[in-house]
Design goal:
Strand order of the largest sheet of chain B: 1-3-2
Number of helices of chain B: 10
Number of strands of chain B: 3
Radius of gyration of chain A: 20 Å
Number of domains of chain A: 2
Structural class of chain A: alpha+beta
Helix content of chain A: 40-55%
Order of helices and strands of chain B: HHHHHHHHEHHEE
Strand content of chain A: 5-15%
Oligomer: heterotrimer
Helix content of chain B: 55-70%
Structural class of chain B: mainly alpha
Number of helices of chain A: 8
CATH class of the largest domain in chain A: Mainly Alpha
CATH architecture of the largest domain in chain A: Orthogonal Bundle
Number of domains of chain B: 2
Largest interface: B-C, 58 and 55 residues
Radius of gyration of chain B: 30 Å
Strand order of the largest sheet of chain A: 3-5-4
Largest sheet of chain B: 3 strands, antiparallel
Shape of chain A: globular
Order of helices and strands of chain A: HHHEEHHEHHEEH
């Protein structure tokens, strides 16, 4: 394997968060962004073709090694721990925030029809959701959005990578 | 808090809208033309069972019960003349809109749930925590939530709950104070009019004035005036 | 790649300590020790032949992925750029300054109940906190406030975007 690819592979491997092209550029001083991206593409394809236990994936604006999705039960057996668990209520709340951000808590509650205080706290603690600032309307309510960790957790490259929202036809007139 | 009784019992429904969607699906009726009497009856039955089981029912379930009853009674009433003239509005309209919106996000949530979630379906390497010290390193992006949590922790530890009392006004004043000090560090000297002149909002004007007073009181800035009624100049007090 | 090798690769990958054959045997119930060892040997040889950025190595009685020995300097360069965390004590001090500014050190110490000299120095060096001036009372105590860098670090446009504690408490439902 050529040296550049080997270096990039090692760097992605040791990082505990997805590594961005910008970080790689900063480390590999004389290498162009294009060369880095193309080495990453090569690596991703090689792991894909090989079909082993690990894969290189593009997530949250960076690159990260992850286990294959068919191997979940084996990994959980090794870890001997319960998988990360998001309740349906947390998932619904997260969906509203992800698609509607920046969004106020009152708006989330209007859509879901329930109080979301406890759930919001949980999502903030898990760092899937963040306070983005305040809305410039009377009372200046706090607005929320999703985090980089959200993208990482759901394996999304960017927010635009979210599946399209299937809106239901509204009433006529 | 997640340990409220109704949440334990009602965890099959994520709220009143979810229960309503369930009833619509169960009865195989058209969401755009809900048979309101039937659905209201069944909804009330669910509510009554929950009450009979002595469950602490979330207020939202009762609010929707009231809404349903209201819609039902409006549909029984003959339309008033006014309504007949300007094409009578369907009393169910708002509820249907709400249900459709909720349904959209409920499905979006299922979509999220089907993704390969890190820590549930796929895994990255476990990293033992390494602490590297040094000041050349960039700081991690931190959420405000962590900062507020830290502030709350402090007040719990010391039992000084008075420090919790911080309002928007106080923070806005700090903002203005910071802006003024920033400006002075950059430009060395400012006049009163420099600071007040650009201000068009009354709110901002008041905060600017209060900030100047506070800074003078703390002797962080000094004000000079060459001649009576001349321009007031402000500088950082320095050492 | 055959399934057994893929599973073993994923298991070795996710673990932060070397994985022993015995552990793998416990997870892969119906697979013999011999098959496991031979799969591990195959994987080791494949990574060796490939000559990329990571290698499967036998260490401390188990197996572990390691970055190539010749790539150490690159890895250290990445680690050196790893974003820093603030300690809980630094976070608490920063929180007091953020909410109480302009504030004297003695005031912060009264609130936190401990000496904060060392932490204050750290926050000043990191440019999250600055000296705004000195109060004109005996001893001329220094008055502190937060910086623009502080706002950037927390993704705030202005201090007034900070939630008040009353708003924050609402999240507890």
């Amino acid at each position: 394997m050529d040296k550049l690819k080997a270096i990039i592979e090692a760097l992605v491997f040791v990082s505990d968060t997805p590594v961005t092209v910008a970080v790689l550029e900063g480390i590999l001083e004389d290498v162009s962004k294009k060369e880095i991206s193309s080495a990453l593409d090569d690596l991703m394809r090689e792991y894909e073709e090989r079909g082993g236990g690990i894969f290189l994936k593009e997530v949250a604006g960076g690159y990260q090694f992850r286990t294959g999705e068919t191997l979940t039960s084996w990994v959980l057996k090794l870890k001997g721990q319960k998988p990360m668990d998001l309740s349906p209520a947390a998932m619904e709340t997260l969906a509203v925030i992800a698609y509607r951000q920046p969004v106020m808590k009152s708006e989330i509650e209007r859509v879901r029809g329930v109080d979301v205080s406890g759930i919001m706290r949980g999502l903030l603690e898990k760092n899937l959701v963040r306070i983005m600032g305040r809305k410039n309307v009377p009372g200046r309510p706090i607005i929320y959005g999703t985090t980089r960790k959200f993208l990482e957790t759901f394996g999304l490259k960017a927010l635009s990578d979210l599946p399209t929202l299937r809106e239901f036809k509204e009433l006529e007139g | 808090m997640t340990d409220r009784a109704y949440e334990i019992k009602l965890d099959i429904f994520e709220g009143p809208l979810d229960l309503l969607l369930y009833l619509i699906r169960k009865n195989e009726v058209d969401i755009y033309d809900i048979p309101i009497a039937l659905i209201t009856k069944q909804y009330m039955e669910y509510i009554n069972v929950m009450k009979a089981l002595n469950l602490d029912l979330a207020g939202e379930y009762l609010v929707l019960a009231a809404t349903l009853t209201h819609i039902k009674s409006r549909m029984l009433l003959p339309p008033t003349e006014d309504e007949e003239e300007e094409e009578e509005a369907d009393p169910r309209e708002e509820l249907v809109r709400q249900l459709l919106e909720y349904k959209t996000f409920k499905e979006a949530a299922l979509g999220l749930d089907r993704m390969d979630i890190l820590g549930r379906d796929v895994f990255s390497r476990d990293h033992t925590f390494e602490e590297i010290e040094g000041n050349g390193q960039p700081l991690r992006e931190i959420g405000i939530f962590e900062l507020v949590e830290a502030f709350r922790r402090v007040s719990f530890q010391t039992g000084q709950h008075d420090i919790m009392e911080i309002d928007v006004e106080k923070i806005s004043l700090s903002d203005r104070i910071n802006d003024i000090v920033d400006e002075l560090e950059k430009r060395g000297e400012l006049t009163f009019t420099d600071l007040l002149g650009e201000t068009d909002s009354r709110r901002r004007l008041i905060y600017t004035f209060l900030a100047i007073l506070e800074l003078m009181k703390l002797r962080i800035i000094k004000a000079y005036q060459a001649v009576p009624y001349g321009a007031i100049r402000i500088r950082l007090a320095g050492e």
